[in-house]
Amino acid sequence: MNRLTLKLFLLALLLGCTAVVTAVVKAQLGPRHLPSARYLKAAAFQDGDWKWADAQKGAVKGALTFSAKRPQQPVVVYLVRLGDGDKAGEQGVYSAPATLDVSQKGGKFEPSFGVLVRKQKVKFLNDEENEISHNVYFLGDIEADLGIFDQGQSREHEFTDAGEVSVHCSIHKRMDGRFFIAPNPAYAVLEADSDSFEIKDVPAGKYRLHTWQKQKRFKDFETTVEVTAGGTTSVTVEMKR
User: Fold this and answer.
1) How far apart are CA 180 and CA 188, in angstroms?
2) Is there a contact between 144 and 157 (Cβ–Cβ < 8 Å)?
3) What is the CATH number assigned to the segment(s) 38-239?
């Protein structure tokens, strides 16, 4: 390689490195945004004016059967209170569970999975030890972008609708998590080593029982159940392919 060729090669290499550095700097210093939450496919429910605290209560218990090998992932069993025409009715007024704090330390969401209830809040904490920025956005039944926030800052979001949410960071592509928002507090989470459940303190009435799978391998199960005051309703949940 002669001197002229070498000089041209080094010049091209320098220009290429300069372009890469410029692109990185622009990405870091570009405009930040805080768009409003958008709900696209989430299930909306009405509370009505009746209160869980005043209602007579019963329980629902049961067992899950699987037609094939079950993935080592949780299954959620939840109830939707029915109204006229056996359609989703008023879910009642209840106290939302405490705010769930989600850490982002080390470039990961912790916890990375959880089951929430409508009207419950989640607080995403940028608790990194170094000056690292994070973002939080949701995909799935509920879609929203909480923007970019720096070390020591946080973002809080209240889930007013029910549905499945996958959680991501636009800056760190391997940061992800999953949440399921139940329509009311009547739900049970079955871990991978459990096949039985009991949902206690359910206001008496008619409900539609549903399942949700973190890793969907079976058809979700549905059935109607009647909860009586002081009674326990038993059900077999058949998970089939």
Assistant:
1) 12
2) yes
3) 2.60.40.420
> How many Å apart are CA 100 and CA 114, to the nearest integer?
9
Helix (H), strand (E) at residue 164: strand 163-168
Separation between Cα atoms, residue 142 and residue 96, nearest integer Å = 19
For residue 81, the SS3 value is strand
Q: Binning pLDDT at 50, 70 and 90, where does residue 14 land? A: low
Q: Per-domain residue ranges for the chain?
A: 1-30, 38-239
- The amino acid at residue 51 is K
The token pair that represents 95 in the structure block: 């106290």
Give the type of residue at 192. A
CB 22 within 8 A of CB 120: no
Q: What is the pLDDT of residues 112-145, one digit of tens each?
A: 999 999 999 999 999 999 999 999 999 988 889 9
Cα distance between residue 148 and residue 134, in whole Å: 6
Instruction: Tell whether the torsion through CA atoms of 46, 52, 56 and 62 is positive or negative.
Output: positive
